[in-house]
Design goal:
This protein has 135 residues and is α+β, with helices and mostly antiparallel strands. Helices cover 29% and strands 19% of the residues. A five-stranded antiparallel beta sheet has the order 1-2-3-5-4. Strand 1 and strand 2 form a beta hairpin. It is globular, with a radius of gyration of 14 Å. The mean pLDDT is 95. The protein binds adenosine monophosphate. Adenosine monophosphate binds next to loops.
Length: 135
């Protein structure tokens, strides 16, 4: 599949549509997932165009995982979950729905199932407040 320059994350990176930003540097950006699977669910992306783990250069993957570690630390500090899941999906069959590579950083609680993937939109004011705390 060819990379779609107008996918939603490419547009967020270009600043064409807003996001609840947590962190940004030259290579990466991190923001709140608008349909969180748990409170504090964040996304981390390399800025370079690449739809999945196969088409993203290793240096960009490395930059993204560095930012994912930073964001996971912030999530741990702010939400104090007992566990944090870092996930990255490749292909529709794996559940990928936005075709610009990204890592999910999701707080996890013992005995609590993960919320449904990309199902319900969260309150924007709540997401903005969470992003501020994580920043
Ligand atoms: P995936 O299914 O792994 O491709 O994940 C895509 C994620 O992006 C889902 O968890 C969606 O809830 C999330 N998402 C979709 N549109 C936006 C958006 N505009 N801002 C933030 N997160 C988004």
């Amino acid at each position: 599949m060819a990379y779609d320059n107008d996918n939603i994350f490419a547009r967020i990176i270009r600043g064409e549509i807003p996001c609840h930003r947590i962190h940004e540097d030259v290579d990466t950006i991190a923001f709140m997932d608008i349909m969180p699977q748990a409170e504090g669910h964040a996304l981390v992306l390399p800025k370079i165009a690449g739809e999945d783990v196969f088409s993203t250069p290793p240096e960009s993957l490395a930059a993204a995982i560095r930012t994912a570690q930073l964001v996971a630390r912030a999530v741990k500090q702010v939400f104090a979950p007992p566990g944090i899941m870092i996930a990255q999906l490749n292909g529709q069959a794996a559940g990928q729905s936005v075709f610009h590579l990204h890592f999910h950083v999701i707080p996890r609680y013992a005995g609590k199932d993960l919320g449904i993937h990309a199902a319900a939109q969260a309150d924007p004011a709540k997401l903005a407040a969470q992003a501020e705390r994580l920043r």
